[in-house]
């Protein structure tokens, strides 16, 4: 062996260790960013500051700058080497991002602050393009780790809500509470954890294991803290869909395990007895809200968006760009946001924007159906609910963790992340 080969042989293990160490460190930086978000930020931060800058920096450390530049600048051929998405999804994101910026800034001259507020949600929704390459490089099995990280974020946000409002879970149902514009229960991870943790408490339970019993008890507690925060703000759609998800899981899982079916019934009966007053009072609040508000102005909002975009052929095809304002009859003023992702992309990107967005979601749905396994049912039920909420009912599609939900669904059919 010559001297050069000897040096390479000696150095290679150390270089490999350093590379693995960096990958692991950046993965933990990403998780730390999500936990900092849960502890100190909010779903819709009014004035992003040092906390949001720290979160963005930790995420950038995970994604790395070259990958970010590749995705944002349209390096389509190079990006295809990852083998993660069809080229048309990358092209569509590129067009949405930059044409919307040109449209809002040059054609319509919207305010810079409004442009940035619209640009960020677009990046959040397409964030799997940035995150999946980093997760592919990572040493962690994100398919296994990520749902628990997202659940931790949801539980922390729910606990924060109870502290901010100054109530305990026993106060649920007395009135509809308000958390001073933080909107913590509206975060997608709250509804995710509210479904995922109770289902997994049953799904992973073993009657012979004391630690599984304790784990299931912790999961039930965390899950119902999340559901409790949703009940405290009288969120109709996520609570209704959560009940429907539990019903689907119960019907499908009871055919395989009699013990788990009995456990599920015991949990249901126990909670119904212990939290009877909270459940009945919350139900009355939900019914009253439905009677008083109905669709909460969403149909009027849809008509207003259609009127705005049909003002000209150009706005119908390409929208009014990032930062665009429209008159919302619900608020009787001009606003820049809508209550669903569909109307958001129609308003800002026109028919072209909606088609790109729907193609993106359709491709993910197709891949999920193509690779679906019964053991993935708890994960699918938990993630689909918050995604549907943002798609149709609430502006939660503008949150950081909405993109994390889409990323998690992409992980479920990722060949490099086998585990669930």
Automatic annotation (TrEMBL):
Transmembrane spans: 25-42, 54-72, 84-102, 114-132, 144-163, 183-203, 210-231, 237-254, 261-279, 341-364, 376-393
- Alphabetical keyword list: Membrane, Transmembrane, Transmembrane helix
Q: Carries keyword Transmembrane helix?
A: yes
Say which domain of life the source belongs to: Bacteria
This protein is called Uncharacterized protein
Q: Which organism is it from?
A: Paenibacillus pini JCM 16418
